[in-house]
Amino acid sequence: VCYRCLRGRSDMCQFLSAIGADDLVPIADLDDGTPVYENSHIGGLAELMVTFEEWVVPIFTKLPAADVGMVCSCVSVAGLGATTAHALMAIEPASSVAVVGCGPLGLSAIQGARIAGASTIIGIDPVAARRDIARKVGATHVLDPNVEGNNLVQKVRSLTTWPTDRLWAGGRNPGGRRPGAGADYVIEAAGLEQAVPKVERGPDPTGLLPMQQAYQMCSLGGHLITTSIIRGDMVIPGNLFSIGGVTHHGGQAGGCSPMRDIPRFVELLEKGQYDSKTLATTVVPLPQMLEAYQQVADRTTITAIMTG
């Protein structure tokens, strides 16, 4: 066991295996000569796989493979890990949570925030169908970044403001400097566009703007978990960064420790607390996986699950 695992950050082991994945080298060939590449130096898609022992998590359940696949995938694990694993932050009951991006990771984070007892959960996504699902699985509010435009951060602050500004009633008055409280916890799950979607596009295909907005919509003293790959250098207000009290967590796998947390996620699934069927919108056998990948790239499906 490496020292990162011993320090409770086994998610960093996964990160280290993935960061070198740009130098792709074929590891095998199909019968027709098509090269096979391994993903993140881990493996590919096949009927049978051989993997390292530390990558295998024993689970015991009678649930169908397609359902279990949702809570064992990296996106769902990251969303649930960010909101329920407590490795990076612990969402307090009755707190406010904003989730920027409502793909399978963001929708899992919304469910995790609901399970953790958040009272205000804001789902933000340009795709109307995803906003509808966000409401179904736990969001109390949904926002379209294309409609809100430059007002998105202020809109989130207005939805998460304190109930009064009267000082003797426990309120605060920011004096116009930073109106609205901001979300206590923000999970960024937008990312860059790897392919042009066939549905509504976000305002910035690089993923840079959503990450900047995620930082700015976080409350003073709040917590931000970022999970995406973006292009470019992020610029944020200097004073907000230096003395705003925002704690930023780089959220590879949402800080999840797979051996500890995945069995817990399966239990959430068994008890009906986590809704996998709403998110698993495409379930296909291996021969149809490339078609399913295309649907994911087009964003015409939420999650594609491959079964044997």
What is this structure, in a nutshell?
With 308 residues, this protein is of the alpha/beta class.
Describe the 3D structure.
With 308 residues, this protein is of the alpha/beta class. The protein is built from 12 helices and 10 strands. It has a 6-stranded parallel sheet, with helices on both faces. The protein has a two-stranded antiparallel ribbon with strand order 1-2. The chain has a two-stranded parallel sheet with strand order 9-10. Helix 9 (208-216) links the parallel strand 6 (183-188) and strand 7 (218-226). Helix 3 crosses helix 11. The protein starts with a helix and ends with a strand. The model is unreliable at 18-22 (pLDDT under 50).
Feature tags:
308 residues; alpha/beta; six-stranded parallel β-sheet; two-stranded antiparallel sheet; 10 strands; globular
Q: What is the element layout, followed by pairings?
A:
Elements lengths: L2 H4 L4 H8 L7 E4 L5 E3 L27 H8 L1 H11 L11 E5 L3 H13 L3 E5 L3 H10 L3 E3 L1 H4 L3 H8 L23 E6 L19 H9 L1 E9 L11 H6 L3 E4 L7 H13 L11 E4 L3 H10 L5 E4 L1
Helix pairs in contact: 3-11, 4-5, 5-6
